[in-house]
Amino acid sequence: MESATEKPGPWSGLALVVLTLIWLIGTPLLFLQVFAEGLRASRGGPSDGDRAMRFLIAAAVVGVTAPALAAIVAGKTRREGAALVFGVAAALCFVAGAVLVSVDLRVSSVPSPEPLPPGYCVERSGGDSDCPGG
């Protein structure tokens, strides 16, 4: 049986470091990919809206699961302070990720305006009209 005064092993500390690095480096990199897809789309380059959404969902998943797993590891190894910090971080990341994904889903569900028919002419005020019949 384990005693209550036994210190956690080095593997749990390594696991916490790896999960923290995944969380603090992986999540921002995935958000940068979402940003890059948006820039590519705004400049008229080839962009896939589904790809940007997949990066956003991946960022939300990594942003929540890495601190949640770190909280579990910290809790199992009796690191109460770390478990509390990672647990609160996982909860905050969950709320932030849910808000970001729901906003992106709401924005992407707005239909784009229909293109104008061929030969459509718009008259402009203050000048000559090149439109037929006017």
UniProtKB/TrEMBL annotation:
Full protein name: Uncharacterized protein
Supply the alphabetized keyword list.
Membrane, Transmembrane, Transmembrane helix
Output the superkingdom of the source species. Answer: Bacteria
Q: Where are the transmembrane segments?
A: 12-35, 55-75, 82-103
